[in-house]
Amino acid sequence: MVVQFFTISLFLFSFFSAPLRANSFTAKLPNKETSLVTESAIVSLYSGLQTNQYELPKLASFTQALKGFYKLKERGIIKKDILTLIDFSLSSNAKRLWVIDLASKTILFQSLVAHGRNTGEEFANSFSNATQSFKSSLGFYATGEVYNGKHGLSLRLDGLEKGINDNARNRGVVMHAADYVSNSFVKNNKRLGRSQGCPAVPVALSKEIISTIKDKSCLFIYHPKLVSSLSS
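Below the sequence we write its predicted structure tokens.
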């Protein structure tokens, strides 16, 4: 009886003390291991990022981006361990785009990025999924294929959130280079230039960024106004 009681007690202790794993609050990583999607695990990953002398994104935006990344990776919607985070709560004069390699836990790029001309002046504050709105759309995207258009090398984006950004491809919302995304434009105009809704990036970095994130990586555009089921 003593041995049986001890065995049952040990089992119960092991069960209730074990962390919750995949299919509850987790997603499978590319190396087939599971990662706990807890606040402490996210903070640990965040604080352990190799910054390459770049600034860290805000923890709030990174947390939402990472939760959505795990869900999309588990579903097979995205294939790469690359996370692109755009924080539209920040001034357009700030470098508010990050490209992060989650496999090596390294920030690869930090860059200026434009928002739509009807989304706001220096700060982004109005968003839309509608054609001809000339506004940015928030939320999670899967990066698509590259093509050469009027802005040179460009990257198609597929919005993954119904009613929030799922009209992106039909709207022609893509990542492309723009000469109005530069420190010199900010200096002369007191704010960054604006697009027709595309997350435009500097000419000098566009090819490197697009080549890195193309073909089914995760892109997340954050703002406190966004309520996303993928990051809850």
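Strands lie at 26-28, 34-36, 82-87, 97-101, 106-111, 139-149, 152-159, 174-175, 218-222.
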